[in-house]
Amino acid sequence: MFASVKGKAKVRSKYRYELEKLVGFEDLEHRLVIQWEGVAQGWCVKIDTFNNEVVQLMPKGYVRDFPGYLEIDLSFRELQDIVNDPNANAIWHKMLSSDGLST
């Protein structure tokens, strides 16, 4: 699976962006994983500038990757979502069940 990258925005940067969410892509939000190469650390690129390949589409109801037992930090809402959708979050269910502990 793919790990999330957490970073800090530069609050004193000379660049400012006005972002606009495109209508019609709500179903892909938080589910689409793309190959993000050749853009260094920039997160704001023109869609037609780089040929970023779609690598994976996570299932509906997917919360996030299982980070390992010592890194679990879930909100109550995330835990509810994981419990309520075992198919989309199968790794969580396996790892937190008695079966997952033996692997």
Explain this structure.
- The protein has 103 residues and is α+β, with helices and mostly antiparallel strands.
- 19% of the residues lie in helices and 7% in strands.
- It contains 3 helices and 2 strands.
- The chain has helices spanning 76-84, 90-96, 98-101; strands at 32-34, 54-57.
- Strands 1-2 form a two-stranded antiparallel ribbon.
- The longest helix is centred in the last third of the chain and has 9 residues, at 76-84.
- The chain is elongated and about 50 Å long.
- The two termini are 17 Å apart.
- The model is unreliable at 1-5 (pLDDT under 50).
Task: Outline the fold blueprint.
Blueprint: E1 32-34, E2 54-57, H1 76-84, H2 90-96, H3 98-101
Antiparallel strand pairs: 1-2
User: Based on helices, strands and strand pairing, what is the structural class?
Assistant: alpha+beta
Percent of residues in β-strands? 5-15%
Helix content: 10-25%
Sheet having the most strands: 2 strands, antiparallel
- The strand line-up of the biggest sheet is 1-2
Task: Flag low-confidence runs.
Answer: 1-5
Which outline best applies?
Answer: elongated
Task: Report the end-to-end length measured between terminal Cα atoms.
Answer: 17 Å
Mean model confidence by pLDDT: 80
The SSE order reads EEHHH
Q: How many helices in DSSP terms?
A: 3
Oligomeric state, counting identical vs distinct chains: single chain
Instruction: Tell me the total number of β-strands.
Output: 2
The gyration radius over C-alpha positions equals 17 Å
